[in-house]
User: What shape does this take?
Amino acid sequence: MKALLLAPALMMAVAALAADPPPQRVSTMLVFGNDPCPKSTEDEVVVCARQPEGDRYRIPKNLRKHAYNEARDGSWSGTAKVLEMVSRQGLPNSCSPIGSYGQSGCFQRFLQENRR
Assistant: This one.
């Protein structure tokens, strides 16, 4: 019985919601510290995520992980070795199928690895 009485009110609420057009834009942004979040307008909904002030100039966590970070041993000299090895691809004495004389360094690499 109550459902029959609420049905017209529910239909009017759904019709009122359908009459309002959805916002044209939805903007998401990060705000740091006590910075204010921009106000939403009729055409735009603004959603803000608040971060601590100390993270303002940090590289986001999902961008901090690189392939050379996994390969290095924790020191800057290890990073330099990895970057030097990556930049040598295709150059003479690089032991690479890419570029001219790339294969000429394979024997040198074999000797270096066996000395270690």
Observations:
- The longest strand covers residues 25-32.
- The mean pLDDT is 75.
- The chain has two domains: 22-64, 65-115.
